[in-house]
Write a structure and sequence with these properties.
four-stranded parallel β-sheet
Length: 1082
């Protein structure tokens, strides 16, 4: 220690104080900025699984190892930076005293070995990364470099400092060995040889230590002043970003899309408050704090960019540049947001205002001008000359295919796809700004329940083309009992000719293997995948609840583990398996390649003929990356005898076909077509066939092959599904054998006992009938429960009289008007099941075309046949409480399907209510006292409407029109008496009074015009009043004063529906008034 070393040490300490101040200040500012984001309460727990996953990713480098060379090089640098900090802090003492070392362990051999390895590892690792960056420098065509668009200034600075730090560790140790000796060949194997080249000088050691110390201090100072340098800050923020990742089991943010969140709650059609909730992300502050942490953590490594199908085919979308743009905009706007600034949808200042609402100019002036300018920028929009450019261009946003390649490759678990979907949600639900092709998609999904706008009955066409019988639920089978799988055909599998080949192949293979399966046929509706990926979240929820209602009715009474669905579409597979559980649909969903592969292993499918062709396989994104199903299709191909030739990009790095993210329904107007690019890669393997496992992929690849064949390339190449390869390799059975293999013998039903016959009655007997049982309240269910007067979910095809709806039990025959024959009593009302809707209103998605009379819902027991007489009309329904919200006009009907059921139609799935009591008819011979009037069910009290706050009478999106809770009059029983007693008085049952019509609530909500509907809402259909029939029991001849009476045939009472409210003015997504809900029958 001398004057010079003391001077160096003092300078080092003083400068380091300034540097530490800059770094800590930057870190605190970063934390403040991240906290601007919305709440995300589900990211904190469970602690131990999340912490465990973070440690695994850190130590094993599982994300970085996807690029092997970069992976091990980065691991060396990471360890050198973290553990090397111990050696780095030692430099404080070495600048004062060159011989300084840590007390206690500073002279341990293991410490010297660690110091040696850290120094060498850091230098080797960072040198490798520098070389890789230069080899991939965008001086090449920019789209071929994953570093195109990255901040090279920040990258070069960080790389230089890390290299100096590594060299500093090596030279300080070598200088100490050269000056003081004490080398150990086991722990100093490199530096002892380097020391031979250095002079013995204590001052030299102090200078080396000062350089090592100050290089790190300069890094702290510069980085603290540039908090958007993700390439530097990720070494701190990455730990938190990995811990707070969406999936606490360690999975990436793929599979199900993130629910639409606002202020920490998942938004549904029922709980959304348009006055306080934000639908999607329309401004940077609408993202959650986890989103802001994502933007902050981006290392600009460009792995996502290198894998993105949009970027690689000339589209403007780069996941890396998108995240960087959001980060730069967010941090530039942060001073304005932290000062309390906020703008409304019209761009007017509503944050920095005084008590009178006037803008606080002084507070605005105190904000940096850059922040004020950023506050005026739109988050998403089109670039207009003379205006501030938006942060994200519309073409960039809609180029995404949701393939998930960016999320799969990101080393710090950034959730690109979730952020893109959130921005799309705002554009669709609030701005109504989306590609014109999507308007047709949304309309078809709402009106017809499929993207092509085809009729539901046409879903059965493929079955008619088969040589064997396939059971259809509601037509050939009334219950799922004794079946193993429900075959979900999907829209493409039912309507698209090429996809229908897959459907037929799978059906035949299942029948060959003896798997008992059924299909839904016309009762299937699109799962809503394209709607959700396009940003129309409420349309997805509507379709999902409709399907869940249908599936729950099919699986009613079936234990959870036996609720099995097999699908051929990767998008249906993902929606049913990953997204439906969020809204109450929990089933075991399996892809057809998984099931067929299992059947091959179980020797239920035995390949006998080898395909023996070179075939390449395309991994569907929503089967592979989103659901990690890679092996089953390949094992199935191998079993069929195919010679698999892999494309360069396969497995988790598979190139997208271009159909995901609703791109299936949009045109590509920029760059090379994604499907053509993928086909070019497939043709480079010289295959005879291209196999896949998704109908969307098949359509896109087939179109690409056709385009290339028109240019003379790929002659004879065919695109097939894996199931077709297996079908060609098994022994084909006769159609009669296939039918027999899947035939299920229905179980016998217990006979319904008839009511006993009354032979004789005491004089002046009463013709009494049981009082009607009040309707049981709807059972609470899972999912997105609708409020209001809800009808238990179910289905029903609106059959008049005693007609049987699909799946319902056989109706009891009407009682014959003959002596000593009695009509059976109606079954008591059962507690309905479903989505937990309040009494009276029909659940979203339920069918029913005005079920007349005693028409039954599927699964309900039959009521007795009606007698042909009418009862008085019911009064108007009671007034509900005043709702609030989206401001739909009075009577406006939100998306849903099903027309209002007439008369005594029951809630689907509920048992028939008991027949009301009938008063005695006039009798000339014997005086018969009147029967008591049936007590009509009490109308459930109407709770205050919440959620979207529709006006009086309007329904939540996806809900069916609620049947009025009117009390029906009791039908009158008129016994026929042959030996009549004189002067019998006639007494009629009083008609029950129904509630009054509801008042019209004040409109409000998401800025729709007065009377406009919410996006996707439908017009209300008027409901006709149905007269209640009167039962006329036959009474056997008896003594003059003792007539014998029989049990009357009864029918559930009918209630008159209120007059239809005025049609609402259409709004939202711009569908015409009167548009029907998905799958709704004409």
């Amino acid at each position: 220690m001398n004057a010079l070393t003391i001077t160096l040490g003092t300078i080092g300490v003083l400068l380091s104080l300034v540097c530490w101040y800059s770094f800590i200040g930057g870190a605190l500012k970063m934390v403040k900025v991240v906290q601007i984001g919305q709440s995300a309460p589900d990211r904190w727990r469970p602690f131990f699984p999340r912490f465990k996953q973070m440690v695994i990713e850190f130590i094993a480098h599982t994300r970085m190892a996807k690029f092997r060379t970069v992976g091990w090089a980065h691991w060396l640098v990471m360890v050198g930076f973290l553990l090397g900090a111990i050696v780095w802090f030692e430099a404080y003492g070495q600048t004062f005293n060159p011989e300084f070392h840590w007390p206690i362990f500073g002279n341990w051999a293991i410490y010297h070995l660690v110091d040696e390895i850290l120094g060498l590892g850091t230098v080797i690792g960072i040198t490798t990364l520098i070389v890789i960056r230069q080899l991939n420098h965008p001086r090449l065509p920019v789209r071929l470099s994953r570093f195109g668009g990255s901040d090279f200034k920040a990258a070069y600075f960080v790389e230089t400092v890390v290299l100096i730090e590594g060299l500093g560790m090596i030279f300080v140790k070598a200088g100490k060995i050269a000056t003081y000796g004490h080398a150990n060949p086991w722990t100093d194997f490199f530096t002892m040889n380097l020391a031979k080249l250095l002079p013995a000088s204590a001052m030299m050691v102090a200078i080396f230590a000062f350089i090592k110390l100050m290089s790190g201090m300069i890094w702290l100072y510069i980085v603290g002043r540039n908090i958007t340098w993700g390439v530097a800050w990720h070494r701190f923020s990455a730990f938190f970003n990995i811990y707070f990742k969406r999936e606490d089991d360690g999975g990436v943010a793929l599979g199900a899309a993130k629910p639409m969140m606002s202020k920490g709650k998942a938004l549904t059609m029922d709980n959304v408050d348009p006055d306080t909730d934000t639908l999607g992300a329309g401004q940077i502050e609408d993202f959650s704090w986890k989103g802001w942490l994502d933007f902050t953590t981006c290392t600009e490594c460009g792995r996502c960019q290198s894998q993105c199908p949009a970027w690689n085919t000339g589209k403007p979308l780069s996941p890396k540049l998108l995240i960087m743009s959001l980060r730069d905009h967010g941090y530039a706007k942060a001073p304005y947001l932290l000062a309390g600034g906020r703008k409304d949808m019209g761009g007017d200042e509503i944050g920095l205002v005084d008590a009178d609402g006037n803008v606080n100019d002084a507070a605005l002036a105190a904000i940096p001008e850059v922040a004020r300018l950023e506050a005026d920028r739109k988050l998403v929009g089109e670039t207009v000359e003379g205006e501030l450019a938006p942060v994200i261009d519309l073409e960039t946003l809609w180029s995404c295919t949701n393939c998930g390649a960016c999320v799969e490759q990101c080393p710090v678990d950034i959730e690109h796809v979730d952020h893109i979907i959130d921005m799309r949600r705002y554009q669709v639900l609030i701005e109504s700004e989306f590609p014109s092709e999507l308007a047709g998609l949304f309309k078809n999904l709402e009106n017809k329940g499929n993207p092509w706008g085809q009729n539901s009955k046409d879903r059965l066409n493929w079955i008619n083309e088969m040589d064997f019988e396939i059971p259809v639920y509601g037509k050939d089978a009334d219950t799922f009992e004794d079946y193993e799988y429900l075959f979900w055909v999907g829209c493409a599998g039912a309507y698209e000719d090429r996809a229908k080949k897959t459907t037929k192949a799978v059906a035949e293979l299942l029948a060959t293997a003896g798997v008992k399966f059924m299909v839904l046929g016309a009762d299937e509706t699109c799962t809503g995948d394209s709607a959700r990926r396009a940003g129309n979240e409420f349309l997805f929820q509507q379709l999902a609840m409709q399907n869940i209602e249908m599936l729950n009715s099919v699986f009613e009474g079936v234990e959870q583990k036996k609720r099995k669905i097999v699908v051929t579409c990767a998008h249906c597979f993902n929606a049913l398996g990953n997204e439906y559980p969020e809204v109450g649909g929990d089933y075991e969903v399996v892809h057809h390649t998984q099931l067929l592969n299992r059947l091959v292993r179980q020797k239920k499918l035995i390949p006998v003929a080898s395909v023996s062709e070179d075939i390449t396989y395309h991994d569907p994104c929503f089967l592979g990356r989103h659901n990690k199903v890679y092996d089953a299709p390949r094992e199935l191909m191998e079993a069929s005898g195919a010679k698999l030739v892999e494309m360069p990009r396969h497995g988790e790095r598979s190139m997208c076909c271009g159909a995901g993210g609703a791109r299936m329904w949009m045109e590509e107007n920029i760059g090379k077509r994604i499907n053509v690019d993928r086909v070019d890669e497939a043709l480079s393997t010289n295959p005879k066939k291209i196999a896949t496992g998704c109908p969307f992929c098949r359509v896109m690849l087939n179109d690409g092959v056709t385009a290339r064949q028109e240019q003379g390339k790929g002659e004879g190449v065919e695109v097939v599904d894996v199931a077709q390869l297996m079908l060609n390799s098994v022994t084909r059975l006769e159609s009669s054998q296939l039918t027999e293999n899947i035939k299920v013998i229905p179980r016998e039903k217990a006979p319904v006992a008839a009511a006993p016959v009354v032979e004789e009655a005491a004089p002046a007997a009463e013709a009494a009938a049981p009082a009607a049982t009040p309707a049981a309240p709807a059972a609470a269910g899972k999912g997105l429960a609708m409020k209001g007067l809800a009808k238990a979910p179910g289905k029903g095809l609106g059959m008049a009289g005693g007609a049987k709806a699909p799946g319902a039990k056989k109706a009891a025959p009407a009682a014959a008007e003959a002596p000593e024959s009695a009509a059976p009593e109606a079954a008591p009302a059962a507690k309905p099941k479903g989505l937990g809707l309040a009494g009276g209103a029909k659940a979203p998605g339920g069918k029913g075309l005005q079920m007349k009379g005693a028409a039954k819902a599927p699964g309900a027991k039959a009521a007795a046949a009606p007698a042909p007489e009418t009862a008085p009309e019911a009064a108007a329904p009671a007034a509900p409480a005043k709702p609030k919200g989206l401001g739909l006009a009075s009577g406006a009907k939100a998306p849903g399907k099903g027309l209002q059921m007439k008369g005594g139609a029951k809630a689907p799935g509920a048992k028939a209510a008991e027949a009301p009591a009938a008063p005695a008819a006039p009798a000339p011979a014997a005086e018969a006292p009147p029967a008591p009037a049936a007590e009509a069910p009490k109308a459930a009290p109407v709770a205050k409407a919440g959620g979207l706050g529709f006006k009086s009478g309007a329904k939540a999106p996806g809900a069916k029109k609620a049947a009025p809770a009117a009390a029906a009059p009791a039908p009158v029983a008129e016994p026929v008496v042959e030996a009549a007693a004189p002067e019998a008085p006639v007494t009629e049952a009083p008609a029950a009074e129904a509630p009054k019509a509801p008042p019209v609530a004040k409109a409000g909500g998401l800025g729709f015009k007065s009377g406009a509907k919410a996006p996707g809402a439908k017009k209300a259909a008027p409901a006709a009043a149905a007269p209640a029939p009167v039962a006329e029991p036959v009474v056997e001849a008896a003594a003059p004063e003792a007539p014998a009476t029989e049990a009357p045939t009864t029918e559930a009472p009918a209630a008159e529906a209120p007059a239809a409210p005025p049609a609402a003015k259409p709004g939202g997504l711009g569908f015409k008034a009167g548009a029907k809900a998905p799958g709704r029958k004409k």
